[in-house]
């Protein structure tokens, strides 16, 4: 198995409810190491570009509004098979479909306010990490 890095966001619904520590505990308990982390207020321009792949979807506008509605915590996670492992720890996009014990099952409010984002591939992880972090901010 390969050591990978993936990108994660703790979304505004979770920071608002003071769940940063609880979510980080889930990540660490499951073997992922937080090798970079910062709390930021995303700008509209940043959020639009980050979710550009969803620009044609009906929920795009609301998604961008939600992501700038409060602070988020952007992170780089490192570990064996980190991309897939983080997706397993997060659970399905829609909390109604998420497995028991996952972050989204336990914390998410809705399909939009679903507490966390995680990269869906190693290729996208590299793009998303570079979008928010410089190399010197990541301490493995
Ligand atoms: P995320 O993993 O950040 O990627 C895209 C986001 O769009 C997703 O999580 C959800 O928060 C949000 N979203 C809102 N509505 C939908 C929807 N109907 N289907 C999929 N994603 C949605």
Structure description:
There is one protein chain. The chain has 140 residues and is an alpha+beta fold. Helix content is 39%, strand content 20%. It has seven helices and four strands, in the order βααβααβααβα. Strands 2-3-1-4 form a four-stranded antiparallel β-sheet. The longest helix has 11 residues, at 122-132. It starts with a strand and ends in an 8-residue tail after the last helix. The mean pLDDT is 98. It binds adenosine-3',5'-cyclic-monophosphate (CMP). Residues 54, 59, 63, 93, 111-112, 114, 117 line the site of adenosine-3',5'-cyclic-monophosphate.
Summarize the structure.
The protein has 140 residues and is α+β, with helices and mostly antiparallel strands.
The chain-level structural class is alpha+beta
How would you describe the shape? globular
How far apart are the first and last residues' alpha carbons, in Å? 18 Å
Taking the sheet with the most strands, its summary is:
4 strands, antiparallel
In the predicted model, the low-confidence regions spanning at least 5 consecutive residues are: none
Mean pLDDT over the residues = 98
Which value, in Å, is the CA radius of gyration? 14 Å
- Tell me the quaternary state: single chain
- What count of helical segments does DSSP give? 7
Q: Bin the helical content.
A: 25-40%
Please state how the strands of the largest beta sheet are arranged side by side: 2-3-1-4
H/E series, N to C?
EHHEHHEHHEH
The overall strand count is 4
